[in-house]
Amino acid sequence: MPFQILPVSINDRSTIANIVIRSSINDPFASSVYPTFTTEDRIETCKARFPKTLVSENSWHLKVADETGEIISYSRWVLPTELWQTLRAESVVEEVSAEDKERYEKEFQAVISGDDWPIGINKEMVLPMEEKMEVARKKFPTEPSILLNGLNTLPNHQRRGAATTMLKWGTELADKNKLKIRLEATPSGFPLYKAHGFEPVETVVHHLKEFGGPEEYTHVLMVRDPVA
Fold first, then answer.
1. Tell me: the pLDDT tens digits for 91-114?
2. What is d(CA 179, CA 193) in angstroms, rounded to the nearest whole number?
3. Which of 4, 58, 15 has the alpha carbon at shortest distance from 152?
4. Domain range list for the chain
């Protein structure tokens, strides 16, 4: 039985949080973002923030189940409004009540500090990184495009093809709608994206040792053009 791509629901929040955090467990940058948190603390924070992300406009969330039914991979896409609305019209989408949205907002705010940063985050390290990334993002295409905002696979299921399955979904959607896809690749993700037709448009090198992070860490901003 091949991998199955399925929509994500609020009932998946614990599973998705576990995948997101554990997929980067060996990434030197990710492990220094919340320096005082245990892995379980990071999972709980991700779980609290996830529902608000799930119901945000233009976001499209997918999961991959393997032949046993285990959910092993997750991706989040941000789509142009018209395409997002089309997919919603074609799919069975779980409607979210105003009361649920209010509850998700409260859960989100519970892990956010007074200065709008997540509680426990290494702000001294992340803030200058984000400032550099904002400058680099100006190299992205200005026309409507698809953003791949996250692609995560459990470590013991990596290199089985789950991420490739998810990328194939996204590239076929982009080609059908004549849209570019943009993303910000980590060192571990770069080879995969390069193999699927993404090309670098800007490279950002961060020096993070003084903040408790790695000596050097690189993000590569990449774009894939639609294929006719």
1. 877 778 889 889 999 999 999 998
2. 16
3. 15
4. 4-224
